[in-house]
Amino acid sequence: MHELLLYGQVSAARHGQVMKILAGVAAMQPRRILQRRVIYRPEREPEEPTSHLRRGGTQTVTAKQKQQATTPSQLYYTYLVQKLSEDDFGQADGKANNTLSADVNFEDGEEPEWSALFEDVPDTGDRGVFARFTNSTDIIGGNPHTFMVASGPNRFVTEYYVEGHRFVKGNVVVFLHRILHEPGVRNLQAEPKANIPAFEALQLLDNSGTYILEAKVRVQDFKDASVLESGVNELKAFQTSMKGCVELSLPDRIRMDTRVKYKLPQGVLTAADIKRMQQEAQARALAQEQQH
User: Fold this and answer.
1) What is the secondary structure of 225-284 as a DSSP string?
2) Is 240 exposed, middle or buried (0-12, 13-18, 19+ CB in 10 A)?
3) Most-buried pick from 23, 80, 193, 271 (CB within 10 A)?
């Protein structure tokens, strides 16, 4: 599955006004969305970029190719998504009533409570919209955290909450939302909290209260040029219809990078460091020659 995306921002003061406009444009009442998102990171560390260029010999190349056949060359953060309702949050006195477990007794037609989500880095195409590969796997039994740890193997990083409203206009899914988090250091724990806090205990990640408006079209067959063009045109038509209300555009794609970054070991010099030191040495030598 691929997604075509555009984004905009809505101030807290204009939230009510934009909600009414979206309800009119989509000809529907908004659907309340509450989610818990738990972030996981692969256990192994990513390789140094371009490290394969410094490896010589046919045997080394062959070994590298065999390794890549079983191990992905890029590492990505992944998400565990829990669908919530107001009743799932703890009470004002801090007592919670929701545990980290999958609902194995859901009936046909109901959506599973838990899912594992992967989102790729948006591409750099010139379509005027972002396109990225995404994959969501429903978890219908067992412990979701155990599943995420074993599937990587991964380790827990942190968690946050999403609250907002969803609209649907044709094939365009509009999600007006903002991010909440629980105060305090959350990434020192070995696993997600078994019980989620009271909704009133959560705080805005962006203190200004600004909402994110995400407009999305899902494309099943990304290689079908006609299907892709149809999706792009529908998303751009929605972009045009929202002009004067919310400006939809492309944010910096690097800010949406889901890859795990390589961290240089402490004390190791990069090629840029060596080049800079050489330039500084040459400059000092030239200065000394001029003095004499």
Assistant:
1) HHHHHHHHHHHHHHHHHTTTT---B---GGGG--BPPP-PPTTPPPHHHHHHHHHHHHHH
2) exposed
3) 80
Distances in Å between the Cα of 104 and the Cα atoms of 80, 132, 146, 193, 261 are 17, 31, 15, 20, 36
| CATH, domain 2-47+73-263, list 2.40.10.480, 3.40.50.1220, 2.40.320.10, 3.30.70.330 | 2.40.320.10
Helices (H) and strands (E) in the chain, counts: 5, 9
Phi/psi for 195 (5° steps) reads -120, 135
Distance CA 22, CA 12 (A): 15
Which tens digits make up the pLDDT trace of 151-163?
989 999 999 999 9
Q: Please give the structure tokens belonging to residue 87.
A: 């009743």
The count of other CB atoms within 10 Å of the CB of residue 69 is 7
pTM recorded for the entire structure: 0.80
CA distance 209 to 13: 9
Residue type, 237: A
Structure tokens at 171: 């094939």
Condensed to tens digits (0 to 9), the pLDDT of residues 40-69 reads 999 988 877 665 555 554 455 455 555 544
